[in-house]
């Protein structure tokens, strides 16, 4: 993985070549290389979903931890059952579309749009994310970067590096504190200075509102009302800081990690952060 990312001529070098040339073919090649050799390694070698590494993707009996590369390459992979896709039908009902003012149907993915992005190597191009966030902060916009800590694609460590590089005023002297929610369960931690915050959501895959809906709701509401993310009780001002450890030190262990393939008919339990059994899923 390290060599695929940093080795000579590999992902980082190809991305830099894309940035310097701006040529579609070069950027597309960089995009494809990084996607397969870096982004998809959990799927290919570990049989786990890059969007939530806790779930198994390999068919068959209990998976041994000592699988060889050859064995893992030869197994048949299955789609991750989470999140379920029935929300598409719900969003496209006339009642919901009328309520939100939508005038076109929602689609989870467009192959036409995806192909167009791929042809230009969009993922391999510079996006100016850090500079754009700094500009938003200068304009007084409340900015939150957040990551589910079971997500590899937008992984916790990478998003935290971006948060550090934004270098918001006072952020380097702030620390991580727990996020309070109405259920009295700690779903994550936040490091905040003024209008800028970085949030780690515990036991969550890529789509945080799906895995931790209450935590996602309070982030949204508190940011909209310009309140502190930790409690929602304090108005944000330039001097506001969270006081805690420089990095989130929480360790979850393997409590919600699955070591058998998750049944395709299972549903996700946002209280236990585990799959419900197919029997319980049917009843619920």
How are the SSEs placed, and which strands pair?
Layout: H1 2-6, H2 11-21, H3 24-39, H4 41-46, E1 48-49, E2 52-56, H5 69-74, H6 87-91, H7 94-100, H8 111-119, H9 129-138, E3 143-148, H10 156-166, E4 176-178, E5 188-193, E6 196-201, H11 208-211, H12 213-224, E7 268-269, E8 274-275, H13 278-283
Parallel strand pairs: 3-6
Antiparallel strand pairs: 1-2, 4-5, 5-6, 7-8
Helix pairs in contact: 2-3, 9-10
What features would you describe in this structure?
There is one protein chain. By secondary structure, the chain is of the alpha+beta class. It has a domain at 129-224: Rossmann fold (3-Layer(aba) Sandwich), CATH 3.40.50.12670. The protein is built from 13 helices and 8 strands. The strands form 3 sheets. A 4-stranded mixed beta sheet has the order 3-6-5-4, sandwiched between helices.
